[in-house]
Fold this protein.
Amino acid sequence: MTLVDEQQLQTIGHHTPRVDGHAKVTGTACFGADIHVPGALHAAIVRSRLPHARLLAVDTAAALEAPGVACVLTSGDLARVLARTRFGPVIRDTPVLAEDVVRYEGEPVAVVLAATPQAARAGAAAVRVELEELPVLATVEEALAEGAAPLHGETEGGEFGSAWSSSGDSAPNVAGHYHDLRGDPDGALAAAEHVFSHEYRLAPLQHYALENHVVTAVPDGDELVVHTPNQYPFLMVRMLAGMLGRPESSIRVVVPYVGGGFGSKEYVNVVPIAAACAVAVNRPVRLELSVEESFRSSGRHGAVVRFTTGVTGGRIVARKIELLFDTGAYADQGPRVIRQAGYRAPGPYRIPNLQVDAYAVYTNKVPAGAYRGFGASQPIHGCECHMDEIAEALGLDPVEFRLDNLLELGDDFAEGDLPLDCDIPTSLTMAVERTGRATAERLPDGRVVGVGVAVGVKNTASGRLPSRAIVRLHRDGSATVVASGVELGQGGHTVMAQVAAETLGIPYERVRVAKVDTGTTPFDQRTSSSRTTVHLGIAVQRAAEDVLAQLRAVAGDDVDAADADVVAAAVNGKASGLGGEIVGVGTVDQDAPEAPTAFGMRAGYWEGSVGAARVAVDLDTGAVEVLQYVTVADAGRVINPHGAHGQEVGGAVMAVGHALTEALDFDGGYLANPSPVDYRVPLAADVPGVVESLFLERGDGPGPFGSKGLGESSIITVAPAIANAIAAATGVRVRELPIRPWAILAPTR
Amino acid sequence: MNELSIDAVVNGQSVTATVPANRTLSEFLRDDLGLTGTKVSCALELCGTCTVLVDGAPVSACTFLAAEVDGADVLTVEGLARDDGELDPLQRAFVEHGAFQCGFCTPGMLLTAKALLARDPDPDEAAIREELHGNICRCTGYVPIVEAIQAAARELRAG
C-alpha cells in the first residue's frame, strides 16, 4: 500500500477541533433529555422487588387515584398493540413488560403514565405487585448445576438471526456456547514439560455513561418517531417494526447527541417500552430513567475464566480455555459476546494445540450485554495474568516470555482469517521502553513499585458491515455529510467531516454533519466495534469522490471543489443536470464475511491492545497507585490526534476502575450498589500520574487514508497489566477483579 | 404544595417566578426557563454534572432548591460566553485541548473550573484534580480537562 504523503494532507492527521465542540461547551448540544414534545405523557416503570418470582397480580387501583396519573399499563395492555411481545438481539427472550414470571430484581412489570414525571413516579410507587418467590440462581455455577431449573422455556431467534451455538448442545440455562478445537490439546498437554492451570474471576460491571437512558416516542399520523440516544438506530427500526407489526418505513429513530455509550445504549429495554406505551395510548410518551434504573438495565458480564497451558522449552505447546459468562436473566448480546470472547481468548500467541469453550449462562441478575471491548477484556485478563504466572514459575522475564511466543505482523491468528495486521511485538517493546522493566523497587515513602505488561488482539469489524453515506456539495462550495454514524463522544462526526473535507479539497470548517434520523439518513449497520472511522469513513470518502467525479464531468478534470465559483457555475449551468447541488453516494457492502474458523467471520482488521503499568503499593494499607500507564495502538493512520489520544487515554482510565474499584455487588440476586455512591468509578484524583498513548502508524489500515478504528484498543489490557504490576511489586497474585486492598494484604499477613 | 416566589438574576437576566417549594434548581432551569445546558445525571449530588454557580459558588442543581436562589446571582453554561458570542477562555481551552468527548459532564466541569479560577488564578495540577473530585467524566480520563483548565488559567493571568 502506498503511503499518502503527509505533507499533502490538509486535515487528516492534523489537529482539528471537533465539529460538536462549540455546541458542547455552550450548552446548546441537544441530548435526549433535552427533547420536549408538547402533550407528552411521562412514564415511570414499576419494577420487580424480587430477583425471581411468579407474577400473580398487579393492583393499579391506588395508582389510578393518584393526582396526574393517566393510566397504568401492564404486559396484557401492551399485548393488544404488539404483534410480538418479546424482543432480543440474538434470542427473543425478553418481554417488553414481565408476563407470568419476573427473572431479575428491577425487571419492568408495569408502566405508569402521568402528566408530570413527579406524578408518574408517585403513581408507580402506589402500584402493588403481588409476587410468589421462586428459587434464585445467583451464580453461573448454580445455574449450570445438575438439576438446576431452566429460567426460560422455548425462545426464538432475534434481530441478529437465530440463537448462536457452535456445539449444538442445549443445557438448561446456557444461552450460547462457543467451541473451538485445533490440533490435539489433551495429547500435547500430556507430553508438555510443564503444565499450568489458573482460574480468574471478574466482577460484573456497569457502563456508567453519565447520561441515563431516555426515550421520547411520538406517534405522528402513520409514523412513530422515536427520539433516543442509541448506538443501533437501524436495528431499533427493525425491532420496533417487527414488534408493532408495521413497515420499517413507518418508524423513524432520531438520535441526538449521546451522553456516553460504551455499549450500554444498544438493546436496552427502554426503547420497546416507550414505543409500545406511545402506541397503546396514541400519545407522545417520554421515559427517562434514574441512575439507579440505568444500573438495572444492562452491564458487562461477570466471568469465570480458566486457562491451562502446556509449555516446553519456553514455548507454548497447548492451551485449554473455559469461559463462563454470567449473562443475567435475558440473553441480550451475551451469545455474541461469548463468541467473540472465545475467539479472542487464546491471545496473540503461537498455539499449535487449542481448545476453547465459552458459555453465556442465564442467572437471576440484571442482563449483561455489550461493553466496550465486547468480550475481549475478560479472557485477555485471564490470559495475561496466566502468562505472567507461567513466566514467574519458569523463572522467565514476562516480556521475553511473551516475545518468544507472540504472533508477528502477517502471521495467522487462525487459519483462514485475515492475517494479523497489527504489530504486537513492536508495540510491546515500545511500551516497556517507556515504563522500564524494573520490578520490586522501593520508593522513599516505603511503597513498593512494580511494572506489569499485557497484550491482546481483537478481531474487529468482522464481516465488513454495510455502511452508506451521502455527501452534498452545495453551490457555495460548502458540504453536508448525511450518514447514520452516531456521535457517542468518540468523535465519529468529526472524522466524517475530516474525510469529506480532505477528499473534496475544501476547508474542514465548510463541512457539516447531519443529525442521525433513520427516516432521512441512509443505512449504517451500527455504531460499535470500532468500525465508524473504517466503514462509514470509506462510505463518506466514496461519496465525496462521487461528488468530485460529477463536478469534473461538467467542469473539467482539473477543477476541484475548493473553488466556489466553479461549483456554483457547475450546479447552475443549464446543461449540467446537477440540480442545484451535487449529491454523491458512497457505499460499503458486506464483503466476503465468512472464514473457515470457529468464529466464522473474517476480521475487518485487528485492533491490537498493548499496555504497560507502573504501580506503587502501600504494604500497610494495600492501597495501589498507578504511577504510569502506557498504551500502544497500531492505528494504521491517525485521522485526528486529539480524538485518537482521547480514545486511548479515556479507555485506559475507564479500565483503571475495572482493575481496582468497580464491581456490581450482588447479594444473591440482589444488586447492592446501583448508584455511583457505592459503585466507584475513577475520579480525577484516581488517574495515573502519567498516561501516555503511543501510536504505530504504517498507513496500512483498511479505512480512509490507511486508518483503523481504535475505540476499544486500550481498555482490553489495562486490568491485567495492573494486576501483573501489583504481583511484580508485592509478590501477591490476586486472581479476582477488582483487586481490593485487602486481597493484596491478606496473603502478606 | 407551598409556592414560593423567586427574584433572581440568571446569566445576567433578571428572573421572577413562583415555584413549588420542592422544585429543584435543575427543574427550574431546565423545565421552567428552558436552560437545558445544565444536565442531570445522578440526582444524588455526587457526579457534578448539574453544577451551576450561585453567587459564584458551585452547587448541585439536582438537589439545590429553586427557592433558595431568591435574591441570588445564578450562572449556567449558557451564561459563560460573552453577549457578543465570544467564548470564555475556559470554553475555548476545552475545545482546543479536546477536554470532552460525549460532552455530558462538560457544563458542570466548566462551571466548577470557573469557580476555581475565580478563587485561585494559578492552581497547580493537584489543586485542579482536588477541585474536580465532585465532577465525574467517564470519557476523557480527565487528563485533557486538567490541561485545558491550566491553559485557560494561563490565558486569564496573561490578561
